[in-house]
Amino acid sequence: MTDPTIAATTTPYWWDDAPVRPIPARTPPRSVDVAIVGAGFAGLSAGLVLAREGRSVAAFDAMNPGEGASTRNGGITSGNIRLDYATMARRFGEARAIAVEAEAHAARKFLARFVAEEGLDCDFQPTGLFKGAIGYRQYDAMARSAEALRKSVGVETYAVPFAEQKTVIGTDFYRGGTVRMDIGGLHPAKFHRELLRIALASGLAVHSGTPVTGIARDGEGFRVATAAGTVRARQVLVCTNGYTDGAAPFLQRRLVPVRSRIIVTEELAPAVMARLMPRRMMISEGRQLGYYYRPTPDGRRILLGGRESGNKGNPIGPSLLMRAGLTEIFPELETVRLSHTWFGNVAMNRDMLPRIFEKEGILYASGFCGSGTVWAPWVGMRAAYRLLGQPARAESAFDFRPPAGIPLYRGDPWFMPTIIQGYRLQDRIAMLRARR
């Protein structure tokens, strides 16, 4: 990198305090009750449940455990659902739409309780989230939605008009917004490290740097081929997401990896942080390609992320674009230097909902659509209870048919740059039309 304001560090900020590391090599067992593909949030959460129920379980990860999106994300516990209520009701029926909204609230509450009960040292902070409106019309719609959500689901949420906005965030860029108090933040790499610790202590065997190369039926079970040998498993759970490869071709045709880039500023003066982030809340926006941002857990820096239009390399251009977005919101940060810039893959599907589904005896838990900090542990555990034959604990609004396949797609998201540019154009038009 040549721009002096852009960081030279291209690994996640989170890895400074909680670096991802390989698990010491071990020979895979000849057979297990359950083989899990992936050792991120979902795979470890599922393995934890299964191991505590006395099952023999092995999780295989092509990289170091957590090296994918689990430790590359923004650490916001949003549990966001991309579809609005009306769209979900039209596509999947009103009963499922209601169930999804209720489950989102339950999943957030569960994550906070899980962190506390297990004693996980991961900087969990229940600060709330502010979502900024790009215009007064959008603010009016968001305020009505917040009121409806408060009444129907019991979420602590309320509108913040423009006149009171600076009590929440130090910018004039938005025209008011809404606050949800059931959302907060954590340190994702520390969370993964702690989840790995308790999963290993419970008896889960984790094999890092051990890609699964194929899964085939073998009588009533499966043969799971890995780079370290073949394992026979009675059941198989696939928990890959934005890094799904050809070992799971059915899932690969249904998940599109989308690159997300995150930047972190150098340390800012306490007075600046107090002015820009007075309540240290998590922040999102009402734009199609809106940024998500937050203070780092120590309250000294600002982290900002968003979708990247390209899908190759690690160029300076996307970092400059993220930096421009930061200074559009906070003009006083125009000369601030970035300490870190990195990217990771999130996974989208045509339904835009996380999913648990079965295909030819293999169970899948995936498709977190950019909100895996909440959904991956929740969906992974629900999938584990399904494998255990505990229907009451496995019940989930996301347990239904597989996501729709994508025509002419076999894992290379060649079309994403065009789609991202289209969304960017929609945002420009929306900003021009917004009553600001």
From TrEMBL:
InterPro entries assigned: FAD-dep_OxRdtase (IPR006076), FAD/NAD-bd_sf (IPR036188)
UniProt keyword terms in alphabetical order: Oxidoreductase
Keyword Oxidoreductase found: yes
Classification via Pfam families: DAO
GO MF entry, a single one: oxidoreductase activity
Residues in FAD dependent oxidoreductase domain copies: 33-386
Signal peptide stretch: none
GO cellular component, one term: cytoplasm
PANTHER family on file: FAD DEPENDENT OXIDOREDUCTASE DOMAIN-CONTAINING PROTEIN (PTHR13847:SF281), SARCOSINE DEHYDROGENASE-RELATED (PTHR13847)
Name used for this protein in its record: Oxidoreductase
Species this chain originates from: Methylobacterium terrae
